[in-house]
Amino acid sequence: MFDCIYDLGDTEEKRGGVMKNSKVSISSILVILGLSIICIVILIPFYYMFINSLSTWVGTGKMSLIPPTVLHFENYSKVWAEGKMLRGFANSLKVTSVTLLVVLVIGSLAGFILGRRKDRISIIMYAYFTIGMTVPAFAIPTIKILQFFGVYNSLFALILIYTAFGMPFSIFVLTRFVKTIPKELDESATIDGCRTIQLFYKIIFPLLKPAIATVSVFIFMSAWNDFYWPLYILNESKNWTLPLSIFGYMTKFTAKWNYVFAVLVIASLPVLIYYFIAQDMIIEGLTSGAVKG
Amino acid sequence: MKNIRYNYGLTVPAATMYTIFFVIPLIMGLYFSFTDWSIYSNEINFIGFEQFKIILTNHSLLNALMNSLKFALVHTVLRNVIGLLLALAVNYVLVFKRTFRMILFSPVIMSSMVVAYIFIILLHPDGLVNRSLEALNLQFLSFQWLADPRKSIFVIAIISVWQMTGINMAIYLAGLQGVPGELIEVSRIEGAGKLKTFIYVTFPLIAPTFTINVVLTIINSLQIFDLVFILTGGGPGESTEVMSTFVYKQFGRGYYGLGTAGNLVLAALICLIAFTTLGILKKREAEL
């Protein structure tokens, strides 16, 4: 995706001056060297986390960057059981997947209508939704509302607020995308006798794929990694999401760093694997909202 | 053509969820900021601007506000300068583009709490950072990274820069993609140096990207919570307390009115700074 870009080095090389060529390659080497050093700075904390998660209590005390000779994979099973990580995983998965589903269904419907109508109401509604991208949520009144509905201290409460907070970004991306789909498509489908909602699910929704991918990445990442709202909302450990389970584990069994690192590896591995497989989609998803703005 | 009815009914589910769980709490927040709402009294009295008088004279809140601003300034400047330099570098090299981009972006996807715990250990008095400084005979650079009342807020800012700069880099990269190569070539043939080409050709073309990046980072900075909460808990004393940890503390103590007022100050501040910056930068963009 980035390979199609012209840059200084590229154009000069194409002109093919020998002297210029060697000058360019020296500066490229310096840039590559600089970038490599920064990459190492980025990678050391990850690497350090991995090797120490496989070490012993004594081993972690050495603060060494050399991997341990004996790999203690049992650290993982120990913290997995002690920290009740499976429960955290299950809770996080429930919250994230239901939120994602609801956001995509109701967000794309709203985006469809707002992208198609051109009257004043649609402009006002679009502004009403997107203002939420700037204004932060009010924590204490939000909790009062959740208590009013009797859902405070439950996973359902998290789903409700993540869905609500996900609306501004989703509608922002989806409305803009719907505008790029030609209206003639709607008209031909209506002639075939589709009703608006059928038209939407049969014709429009499948075309929204790139926007859906962007929204999904954004909603998934923000819900999966969120620590702030569970801290306010979930008091009982049976409801703890993954980040809160880690926090609970840390406050209960801190001292041994090999176990701390093992917990951190367990928490980050799913996201890292997902990133490794779908890096283009993820980077695109997390930045495109901003770029298109 | 047949008239298709784009029924507003289909926006009702989205509008309902958003209104009940985001907008109504916001309106409630506006009201409760002017009350003495707390768990210590059964009634909630409207005390007008009293709450804000309390805020303006409340040392803890002013301190949190100052810290949020200090953090936001350092964080926004560093993330944008480093992010832009990295984007230019990645855009410049011909090999390993994707690998560089992937590695530089990777901390962004991590949960901030995981990052916080890794750095607690790295910055421990006996941790890797101090040991490395010792080995290089640079002990004098070391201090109580996460327990220094004056400097720790900046340490947290730098940790956040380590984690989040990838996103600024990716946004700048996307902006640089939109710069036509021909223009740069023309400028170079005309004899402009690399720096001049950047200042007069590339930068004006990526000005909108710059605007978005700066505003986004400011909003992001002012809402910082996870890193501060786990790294220092706002301490030592209240030296690293920021607005969102302040609100959380008031919630824990039962001072709902004060907490909500703090939240209102934060929201107003974010809107004010974001819209002012947007205004200034948009104007600048037009001039360029």
Helix content of chain B: over 70%
Determine the structural class of chain A based on helices, strands and strand pairing: mainly alpha
Distance between the termini of chain B: 45 Å
Q: How big a fraction of the residues of chain B is strand?
A: under 5%
Could you state the order of secondary-structure elements of chain B as H and E?
Answer: HHHHHHHHHHHHH
What's the shape of chain A? globular
SSE topology string of chain A: HHHHHHHHHHHHHHH
What is the subunit organization of this protein? heterodimer
Number of strands of chain A: 0
Question: Quick one: how many beta strands of chain B?
Answer: 0
CATH homologous superfamily title of chain B: MetI-like
Low-confidence stretches of chain A: 1-20
Number of helices of chain A: 15
Give average pLDDT of chain A, whole number: 81
**Annotated CATH architecture of chain B:** Orthogonal Bundle
Tally of discrete structural domains of chain B: 1
**CATH homologous superfamily of the largest domain in chain A?**
MetI-like
Shape of chain B: globular
Query: How big a fraction of the residues of chain A is strand?
Result: under 5%
Spans of chain B of at least 5 consecutive residues whose pLDDT stays below 50 are: none
From the 3D structure, determine the CATH topology of chain B: MetI-like fold
Description:
The complex is a heterodimer of chains A (293) and B (288). With 293 residues, chain A is an all-alpha fold. Chain A has two domains: 1-45; 78-292, MetI-like (MetI-like fold). In chain A, 77% of the residues lie in helices and 0% in strands. In chain A, helix 9 packs across helix 10 (196-207), helix 11 packs across helix 15 and helix 13 runs antiparallel to helix 14. Chain B has 288 residues and is mainly α. Chain B has one domain (59-287): MetI-like fold. In chain B, 70% of the residues lie in helices and 0% in strands. Chain B has helices spanning 12-32, 50-57, 59-92, 97-105, 112-122, 128-135, 152-177, 181-189, 194-205, 207-222, 226-231, 243-253, 256-287. The longest helix of chain B has 34 residues, at 59-92. The radius of gyration of chain B is 23 Å and the shape is globular.
